[in-house]
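Input.
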Amino acid sequence: KQFEKKYQTELIELAKEYQSKNLWRKFKELPEADQNRSDIREQLKYFDANVNINWPLMHYKSAVRYLNKGATDIAATGGTNWQKYLPPKFQKRVFYPELWKEKEIEEWGLAFLENG
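Output.
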């Protein structure tokens, strides 16, 4: 609640300002031939996966090392259920869902959970 109270107005203003200034908007402004270029599409998917799967997984792995010290909650969690919140499979943040196959989105972040 404190975070929302302090930053809500600023975050809403930023979201409105950047709604039309982002990679997806720029991509959609490209000629159709360029939008269909596999190299551009793959780079957007690479960015999407790094920001929304790989980085959160590194954060999750760090959290496991630090927070998984037994039955007691460590104060740093703020009382959140971090085991269920942090994995990308549960967050399912995807910047460019139109570029991914339905199965890829269904299995978002799953490979890590299966392979550890």
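Residues 38-116 form one domain.
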